[in-house]
Amino acid sequence: MKPRSIVTALGAATLMGAALSAVPAQAEPLDLQVESVKFDRASVAVSSLNTVPVTITVKATYKLGKADQPMYVELNSYESKHTYSTQVFSEPLKLIDGTGTDGTWQGKVNVPSTADGRLDVGSVYAGVLDRSLKAKTPDNDPVTGVSLAVTGLNIPKITRKLSVSPVPFGKPYSITWQVLNSTTGKPYGSRLKVLHPKGDACLEAKGSAGAVLTNAAGVLVTQHAAAEADKLNCLLIPGTQAPIDSHIQLVPRPGIVAATPDRTSAKVGTTVSVKGNVAGITYGCTVNLQKLSGATAWRTLRSTKVSVSSRYTLPAAITAKGKGTYRVQLPACNNTLAGVSRSFTITGV
Question: Signal sequence: where (predicted)?
Fold first, then answer.
């Protein structure tokens, strides 16, 4: 489904980023159709870990709407001057006029400083936000052309330092997180409320339940069991509907490659299968069969992808008599560093 551009004015004046109406024809009628979206202002300034509430009003029709039907809005700061885009969700919008099938909804968007730049309306959704990865996507109508100018000041920056990097397989580790003022490069000077869920919960956080406090320097040290290295690790600054800032990553892992030829000698013109596995979460990563050329140069002969079971098979064509030295090389992929197998020889006869 292609987004529909919605364009109007805020009051009688044309204000940048304010808002909203005019709906092009759809190829197919939607259960939810947005007629207009409007902010109560054209721009907002936000500092540090604060948020500023901005009123957003939506006019829409919804065939499946109920008497007390809520709505919510997804917004994205794709042109943010922050290091990555920030996703923001409105508070639940309440019906203020009309009916649940044809009405006007209104509520607040708590705008964080991390949305610095331009905050664009992405879609309007029927219902209340559920960030669970298993949640069914509710009826929605994409929107373009509606934005709010955001000036972010003293924007937070989350840093991470591992106790060891890359993290060895089978070993526990710790992470030292710190929340800094990106403008000054220094801590905010007080204990800050943060979340540090693990795994998929990093992507599902909503609200501040389970929050803990950093020290006055904005530092929190988290301890992790060995198995947690293959799950998402994160630190979040909580917001009401979604975090206002986050640092979510897999920890770096060493590139460990095993390779074994099914024969150590073969006739010229035949093929030897080289099989092996790559440690860690490396499904879809490329591995290269290489042959030593001269004293130190390695030449790639064939390439393939690692399977979902972390295994691979590469054919080594025997083209000449004599002993050849081979290895399998893994370029850096996702959170796994580059690595090579032990070299092995195959003799052409």
Answer: 1-27
